[in-house]
Amino acid sequence: MIKKIRSKLSIKVFLLTAVLMLICSSIVCLCIFRFAPYIYKYNLSDIELMAPEFSEELSYSENLTDLAIYAEGISTMLSEYYNDEYRLHIFTVSGKEIALPRLDSFTGKSMYDFSPQSRSSFYPITLAHNPQVYTMCIAQNTEKQSQVTEALYKTLPILSMVILFASVLAAFICSLYMTAPVKKVSKMAKQMADMDFSVFCPTGRADEIGVLTDSLNKLSQRLAETISELQNANQKLLADIDMERRLERQRTTFFSAASHELKTPITIIKGQLQGMLYQVGRYKDRDTYLAQALSVTDALEKTVQELLLLSRLSTPEYTCHKCRLNLSTLLNERLAAYEDWFMQKELTVEKTIAQEIFVLGDAPLLQKALDNLLGNAASYSPAGNRVLVRLWTDTGKVKLTIENTGVHIPDEDIPRLFEAFYRVDSSRNRQTGGTGLGLYIVKTALDLHDADIELANTAQGVMCSIAF
């Protein structure tokens, strides 16, 4: 039983409240018994009319013995006729009260201890054979038991039962009111200890329990948010690890492809040089094969330069130096630079370029991207076709499209065009001079500028769309 009481807060609160209620009720009853005022039935004005007669009667006394007898008779009469509500008091000249019925001692009170509202006027008493003058008054009996106290005594058994029942009922309600939210909080805390932070404990209280409940609700919410953030961070970390692995595979593939792309022209140059050194067959015509070797060397140099550029762009230390750049001017300059090439390819350039369009970008990097796109348009467009260049702004974005007509790309090849060293089968020849790195460099440069690029077939040809 004691163990159960110790383990249950509701039982503790119930017992404590019941005991406190019983103690408080008992104290209240005792205070009523002790301090309840007496309600007097007879008026003091009635006594005031009789006081002079009593004074005169007492003055007939020959000595103190007679005074004691007369005083006792008056006291008895007051007790009988006035229900002991009033008493006779006799004082010496100094104001001290004499004890009745014996007059040889004092009560310890004085005539000044009686308020005018509770006594009659003072009247003198003169004795025949005693020169000392005494004073008398009639005052209310403050020791008279009140009617309230009498009623309490009569109803004490029933009152005790009522107090006990009220104490138990109040203790039950109080324990229920106090422990119900505590039980909810305890249940919530247990669920939180089991790592369940989805719980919520509603409360409409503004006291300390309400504050505690609100605090636990906030703690549960913040822990749930923190765990969610940790889970998201963990997922992001896993995604980053997966991305790093994919990048590592891409780097491995890239270097493998780079090695292959470099090995082929080096092998060609080496074979041609050896053939010319040893005067083997057709290689006796040195001028022809020296020109071919130079051409292969130029392609090799271009590949190495593009590899170096990609290596520089991929390093963590690389910083893209952006400034406010007039893209309209830059695009017109690059079109002018490629004008001769377009003429040699018998291509017609149609441009629609809005003036004074500015972007935040790195000028050399964007120039390299534009050169690669314009070079691809010139290289892969059949003679007699058109190159359509358009630059404009739309809904807060700067948009650029370069479309070359007369050629299409197989749909299955389009998603892979931005991979390093990937070339469409129809362009896998050295006449175009392609290295397979052009669009990869364009994509890398535009990613550094947070720009989107997309390649798609159109009714006329192939369009490259860029949105800054």
Evaluate the radius of gyration. 59 Å
Based on Cα principal axes, name the global outline.
rod-shaped
Compute the number of helices.
Answer: 12
Order of helices and strands: HHHHEEEEEHHHHEHHEEHEEHEE
Q: Please give the oligomerization state of what you see.
A: single chain
Annotation, overall tally of beta strands = 12
Question: What class, by secondary structure content?
Answer: alpha+beta
Main sheet: which strands, in order across?
A: 3-2-1-5-4
Q: Report helical residue fraction.
A: 40-55%
Ranges with pLDDT <50 over ≥5 residues? 426-433
Mean of all residue-level pLDDT scores: 79
Largest sheet: 5 strands, antiparallel
- Beta-strand residue fraction: 15-25%
Cα end-to-end separation:
79 Å
Task: Note down, in words, how this protein is organized.
The chain has helices at residues 2-7, 9-35, 44-58, 64-81, 147-154, 156-193, 208-277, 286-314, 327-337, 339-344, 363-379, 438-448, and strands at 86-91, 96-98, 106-110, 123-127, 130-140, 323-326, 348-353, 358-361, 386-394, 397-405, 452-457, 461-467. The protein is rod-shaped, with a radius of gyration of 59 Å. With 468 residues, it is α+β, with helices and mostly antiparallel strands. A five-stranded antiparallel sheet has the order 3-2-1-5-4, with helices on one face. A five-stranded mixed sheet has the order 7-9-10-12-11. Mean pLDDT is 79; it is low at 426-433. The two termini are 79 Å apart. Helix 6 (156-193) packs parallel to helix 7 (208-277) and helix 11 (363-379) packs antiparallel against helix 12 (438-448). Strand 11 and strand 12 (461-467) form a beta hairpin.
